[in-house]
Amino acid sequence: MSDKKVSRPCHHCKSRSASAPTDTSKIHYEKLWLYRHCSSVKQRDQQAQKAGQLFSGLLAMNVVFLGSAFISSMIFNKVAITLAHVWILLSILKALCLFWIIYYLLGTSRQPHAVLYRDSHAGAIWIRGSVLLFGSCSILLNVFQIGYSTILVHCKSRLEIVFPSIGILFICTQAYFLWHHSKDCIQVQHNFTRCGLMLTIATNLLLWLLAVTNDTLHVEIESQLREVEQRFTGKAPSSHPHWCNKTTLCTCPNMTICKIFQKGYILLYPFNTEYCLVCCSVLYVMWKNVGRRISHHHILHSKPKFKLQGVIFGPLLGTSAVITGACVFMLYQIQATSLVPSRQVFAIYYSYYVVLLPLMTVGAVIGTIIHALEKKELDTLKNPTRSLDVVLLMGAALGQIGMSYFSIVALVATDPRDLLNSLALSYSVLLIFQNITQNVFVIDGLHRRHTPSGKEEDTKEEHNREAYSQRRVSVLELGQEIRKASLCYIHTYSHLSWKRRVLREISFFLVLCNIILWVMPTFGSHPVFENGMERSFYGYSTWFVIVNFGLPLGVFYRMHSVGGLLEVYVTA
């Protein structure tokens, strides 16, 4: 019976197509072999989609395994496979991705019926802004690397200039592509588009993996800086690590310019890893949206807007946390960049976290309890962007959690009774609890259906805005207008239910806290590497890999949490 019901509309469509003009809003696939041999339209759609996703996924898996084998061989056998071989492989992958992106921009996206639907949830403005921000910093990083290698061209390979140049072209093209086409639900050339997206994802993952594991330039820069410091202080170079002898032959003739390039490279290095991770997340959503047809249930007719109303204590506490964190960050940067960083600045840094993290944990727990008390319906509609947000929150939190467990083992095994060690131990334990509780709160809030606050308040607000814009405010009326605005704000605040009010306060407080916790490690505040406790326990190279794996994920987690918390705030 089911076959007959499905086959009748197909014959009807064929008879209509002969007499009536074709509907331009639908794509016909009668010429494909898979569609001729399937009886159900829905079944053949699903089979074609699964086959395309499987093939493109296998392509990305093989590319990632090949690149990982090259990078691992470079680490364990630097004679047979060198960094130059890895750069050549990545340059070939970048060139293939560039050809596909240009073909998509000039060919695929301009075909008839190519983009009939656009995913309103995908490509939020904050994540596209992150692509531009991190992309710009990555371009500047490559410029510093080109300048540094150009000065030392007498002892460096020319490939160290060519590879960053290709990287600049790749970053610019990819950023433009993601800014304009991140919402596309492409309806033509499904398999080719899926393969191109997966190839680009695999390339970004390999670039991230290389940035995490390759400490060659960091070692070289640190050895030169230590040599300059020892000349300045008059100390003997007996305390140099074993790798310093390899880099003393390649020194800068002009130390001022070299120091600018070195400091800029070290400061901007985390942005490159962040750029790769953000691009992978946006490209994955595009890959899931290939061939997707959005029904009218998924289209947001009244998208909730961000309004700074109904919150008082959250912004006050969050602003206090941001101001205090900024002062701690500046103090840390001044002291940590000196020749001998004091233990007091590390104690102040960890103390700030030890005070802030419990407050964030308590807020997230209270918000989760309020979500459980609410009777909001769960949003069960298919949403690839929300599914990816959940996966990214859980996956990115593993970076900080894993790094915290490594720190706990090292600190407990050395001397946990020391003041600085006990503060660092408390920081690691509290960070684990804060990540877990915040993830539960954000994920629970993302699955709650939005309930508007009522049309009456919106119409009143719009009427007041129009009246205010039409009225010319004089200097004498300014005080009265400020008083009216304050009364209107308090009126809106008092009319919210206590559950929505508390949820908004907590969400806004957590947004500001995550912003300052994103700013501090992003702009060079890395006490887990600079205090020397874990580094002396695990060794330089091992702890470098652990930090470069966990730190970018931690920064990405804070940035992604801000977007999730803003959505929870808006829908509260």
Task: State the main characteristics.
single chain, 572 residues, mainly alpha, 2 domains, two-stranded antiparallel sheet, 20 helices, 2 strands, 75% helix, 1% strand, globular
Gyration radius (Cα, Å) is: 28 Å
By oligomeric state, this entry counts as single chain
Distance between the termini: 46 Å
- Overall residue-averaged pLDDT value: 77
Low-confidence blocks of residues = 1-31, 236-248, 453-473
Estimate nothing, just give the exact number of structural domains.
Answer: 2
| Helical residues, percent | over 70%
Q: Structural class of the helix and strand makeup?
A: mainly alpha
Instruction: Write out the strand line-up for the largest beta sheet, numbering strands in chain order.
Output: 1-2
Biggest sheet character: 2 strands, antiparallel
Determine the number of helices (DSSP H or I, runs of at least 4 residues): 20
* Strand element count: 2
Keywords: Cell membrane, Hydrogen ion transport, Ion channel, Ion transport, Membrane, Transmembrane, Transmembrane helix, Transport
InterPro entries: Otopetrin (IPR004878)
Transmembrane segments: 54-76, 82-106, 126-149, 161-179, 191-211, 266-287, 308-334, 346-370, 390-413, 425-446, 506-525, 537-557
Family: Belongs to the otopetrin family.
